[in-house]
Fold this sequence. Notes:
By secondary structure, the protein is an alpha/beta fold. It has helices at 36-44, 52-56, 72-79, 113-118, 135-148, 160-164, 238-251, 275-286; strands at 2-5, 12-18, 83-88, 91-92, 107-108, 123-125, 152-154, 156-157, 167-170, 205-212, 230-231, 258-264, 291-295.
Amino acid sequence: MFAYSGLLPSRRIVLSTLLGAFTFGSNASGATPASPQQAAMAARLPGVPKPPGTVNGKLPERRGPEYPWGVALQDMEAMRPDVRVINLETAMTTHDKPWPDKGINYRCHPGNVATLKAGGVQVAGLANNHCLDWQIPGLMETLETLEGAGIMVAGAGRNASQACRPTVIQLPPAADGQPSRSAAAAAAADADTAPAGPEDVDGPRVLVWGLGHESSGVYDEWEAGEARPGVCMTDLSAAHAARVGAAAAAAKRPGSDIAVVSLHVGSNWGFTVPEAQRQFTRALIQGWIPRLYALTAWRALACPLPPSPSL
Ligand SMILES: *[C@@H]1O[C@H](CO)[C@@H](O)[C@H](O)[C@H]1NC(C)=O
């Protein structure tokens, strides 16, 4: 979990990543049926964890939806975050046709969305290499599941404009009397590309974009198209960083809004951040994205960064 203090006084944003931790865990009904694919995969590959249901049967005890969080929930409460953003690295679906020849296909029963609610999750980033593990119907059900639970999605959608628009979280006006602008001037864009979220409430907002890069295992075919559900993809070019910066500059209200990018980039583990990734993240930060978290390395990696621009 990564926690950053926000730039605004008393604003805290908790950013965390949640992946197969409960993908292989119990489903909503308490049983854990392994798909034939999971069972076959477990049989084929040494070291691949077997779905618990195939080994030990049902969990001996039913647990509440908060259970998978463990002590993280208390820690999060203690931080009193204004915003909780996760990278949800699994599909939430019962669809059973895996993306072919992928090897690792994460799936979480839609009923487990109660666990995300129990953690107070407001935004789920889906620009990663597992949201389409159960093909387009699996992504569509994931979107419906999250939306149905009142959790906003960043980085994937029913088409490119939905996948690439920022998700907006309205914060309550700052306690210190910080002036907030009217939102009337904002979001003049058409409804399609306009940020998702409340539009005409005063007060600071957090805008979250999700971006996936092929270095983290997101397939090119997963890129959302004009009429194709998928992921908002990025390359690591200066031009793309500039486009993201321009979109952020256009959507943000200067002085009050906070921009966050959930960037899924890089391979698992490893010790270094390749130069291209450094340059891209620096370019984002020097643009309009002073809060950025990059995922998938599974360990903290040092990457010298320039000072953030003042908002
Ligand atoms: C993209 O998807 C959204 C949500 O389904 C829809 O409202 C919008 O019209 C779509 N845009 C295009 C260009 O198809």
